[in-house]
Every structure is written in structure tokens, then in C-alpha cells.
Specification:
This protein is an alpha/beta fold. It has helices at residues 12-20, 28-40, 51-55, 65-73, 83-98, 106-117; strands spanning 7-10, 45-49, 77-79, 122-124, 151-152.
Length: 168
């Protein structure tokens, strides 16, 4: 990637973690904050699906953070859901149903399909475990329904000392 600024696809959970200033495992929020700073300096690009705006509810974030979210979203490349994205999202979900009992949720499939079709360098998420019905996303890294995609937590390249309480 020399000479090219990376394109990071952000799952909705990253926006929510940032808006709620979540206490997370050591280093996780540093990665979120660093990617935002790099995007502000145009050293990296953040992309997400327009469904992120549907998933981030003002009622679930602290008062006053809605305007901060809208400000950040002006710097983010928001991709509309179209026929190609919906077809690939369908194929991803179908792939996992055929190969097991769980699949990825519809919003996650849309996010993954968008990242694949728009050639994100990395798909950033905190979703490693999934639920009783849905697969976690990080374990899919490298092969998402037969498509190459790195799925990982955002990593701080130049970690800063964070004095907030963090989960061990």
C-alpha cells in the first residue's frame, strides 16, 4: 500500500463505541481514535454503508453526540445500497446457511458486501462473537463467503497513553 492511503470500512459498532466513549479492552479505542484522526488529516479514508445512519439511533447515544456523529459522517464515504450490494449480501448470507446453521445478519451482510465491492483495505469491527443466530465477523477474516476481505479491529499504529479505565 505504499503511496496509497488505506480505505477502512467501518461497521456501525465502531461509530457507536466512539459516540458512547465505550470502555473497551486496552488499545481498542486507541485504534478507533487514531483512524478518525488519520481521516481528518486525509491520511486514511473511512467508508460505511448508508445503513449506518439507520443503525445509529439518537436515543441510544449520549445527548449532544448526534451533531458530532453528523459531523464525522460528512468526512466518511457513505455508500448507498444498490442491486449489486444486495445481491452480494444475499450470496454471503446464503453461503453460510448452506455451510452451517448460522449466517451473518442482514445489516452485517450489507456492510460486508459493500466493503468487498468497494475494495476496502480492511473491514473494521468489534464483532468477534456473534449471537445465537448470527456469526461473528472477525473470525471470517480472509474469506468472507468466498471473497477476500481482512476483517479486524482498528489498530493504533502510534498508540497514545489512555488514562481512562479500560476492561482487562
Amino acid at each position: 500500500m505504499a503511496g496509497k492511503n488505506p480505505i477502512y470500512y467501518w461497521d456501525t459498532c465502531l461509530f457507536l463505541a466512539w459516540l458512547k466513549d465505550e470502555e473497551r479492552k486496552a488499545g481498542e479505542m486507541s485504534g478507533v481514535l487514531e483512524v478518525i484522526e488519520r481521516a481528518k488529516k486525509r491520511d486514511a479514508q473511512i467508508m460505511t454503508s448508508v445503513i449506518t445512519q439507520i443503525e445509529v439511533l439518537s436515543a441510544h447515544i449520549p445527548i449532544g453526540m448526534d451533531s458530532l456523529f453528523k459531523g464525522l459522517m460528512r468526512r466518511v464515504n457513505q455508500i448507498s445500497v444498490d442491486i449489486k450490494i444486495s445481491a452480494l449480501a444475499h450470496d454471503i448470507r446464503n453461503h453460510y446457511v448452506k455451510n452451517g446453521t448460522k449466517t451473518v445478519s442482514t445489516p452485517d451482510a450489507i456492510h460486508l458486501a459493500t466493503a468487498i465491492l468497494y475494495r476496502a483495505d480492511e473491514f473494521h469491527t468489534f464483532d468477534s462473537e456473534g449471537s445465537s443466530r448470527s456469526l461473528g465477523l472477525i473470525p471470517l477474516s480472509g474469506n468472507v463467503g468466498g471473497h477476500k476481505l481482512i476483517v479486524c479491529k482498528p489498530e493504533a499504529k502510534q498508540p497514545q497513553l489512555d488514562l481512562r479505565k479500560q476492561k482487562p
